[in-house]
Amino acid sequence: RAVFSMLADKPLRAVVATLEDVLDEWHLYPLDDERGFSGEALYAGVEQAAEHAVVISHDSLQDALQAVKQASAPGDSILIFGSFLVVGEALEMMCWKLGKLQKFPQT
Question: What are φ and ψ of residue 100, in 5° steps?
Answer without folding.
Answer: -115, 5
